[in-house]
Amino acid sequence: MKKMDLVGQRFGRLLVLAKSESLHGHVRWLCRCDCGNECIVHGSSLKSGNTTSCGCYKTENAKRLYSSVRQNDKRLYAVWNGIKQRCRNRNNKSYSNYGGRGIKIDEEWASNYESFYNWAMRSGYHEGMEIDRIDNDGDYCEDNCRFVNREIQSNNKRNVKLYEIDGVSKSLAQWCRDYNQDYYLVRQRVYKLGWPIKEALTAPKNNNYSRKEGG
Question: pTM surpassing 0.70?
């Protein structure tokens, strides 16, 4: 059966110029791309639509995606850049608490924002969420990171004080939420007046500042 002559035909961005040498019995064609580059492509790839450019389309598309990601989600990009700065920039004000403690950022994340972005999307990221390390002494990597609301992220910080009631330890913000109490009122009772946590949470609001613990 006579093989089809593709010279002069166009496939996407490619114009077939001439037949090239065959490889392993497969006919190949010399093509010129609209961008000016020349390339050799298997005839089957041209006819199936698998190859429609010299590779420039894929590169341009990747650049558009990268640009779109940065423009449409500048906050997530700032999160990524902030992690890199804390872990790698000795001049960053937070370096001593991160890179200075040996905390690292995953090498693939550090070198490729799109990799971090794709992980964030798979992990349920949306605006208003914070990145959180499950192990506060561990690295920024897929196995140790998650996206959580701000309260959970704050409670995972090393300097958050926990208060115990009936054998359960929670932060002051969490107890206030559980007891439906005003955080600033309870905070003043505990921090300034020295009340026990449970009394600070359960005393009537009109008894705000009547006495200190033991008073």
Answer: no
